[in-house]
Amino acid sequence: MWESLQHFFWQSRGVWLTTPTVAGLVILLRLGGFLQGWEWDLFDFYMKSRPSENQDNRIAIVGINENDLSRLNESIISDQVLGSLLNKLKAQNPRAIGLDIYRDLPVPPGHETLVEVFQTTPNLVGIQKVAGEVGWETVAPPPMLKEKGQVGANDLIFDGDNRVRRGLISLDTKDGETIYSFSLHLALHYLQQEGISPEMIEGSDQWQLGKAVFSPLNPNYGGYIRTDAGGYQLLINYRGGDRTFETVSMTDILEDKVSSDWASDRVIIIGKVGESFKDLFFTPYSSGLVGLPEPIAGAEIHANLVSQIISSSLEGRPLIKSWSEPLEWLWIIFWAGTGATLTWQFRYVDGEKNLSWKRWSSILGAGGFLIGSTYFAFIEGWWIPVVPAFIAFGGSIMTITAYVAKTAAEIRKTFGRYLTDQVVANLLENPSGLSLGGERRKITILTSDLRGFTATSERLPPEEVVKILNFYLGHMADVITEYQGTIDEFMGDGILVLFGAPTSQKDDAERAIACAVAMQLAMESVNKQMKKWDLPKLEMGIGINTGEVVVGNIGSEKRTKYGVVGSQVNLTYRVESYTLGGQILISESTLKEVGSTIVIESEKQVKPKGVKEPISIYEVGGIEGNYNLFLPKKEEVFAKIPQPLLIEYSILDGKNVADTKYRGKLVELSENGAIINYAHNDTQGFISGMTNIKCNLLNSENYHPVSDDIYAKVLDKPHHNGGFYIRFTAKPPDVTKKLDELYQSLV
Question: In CATH, what number does 639-746 get?
Answer without folding.
Answer: 2.40.10.220
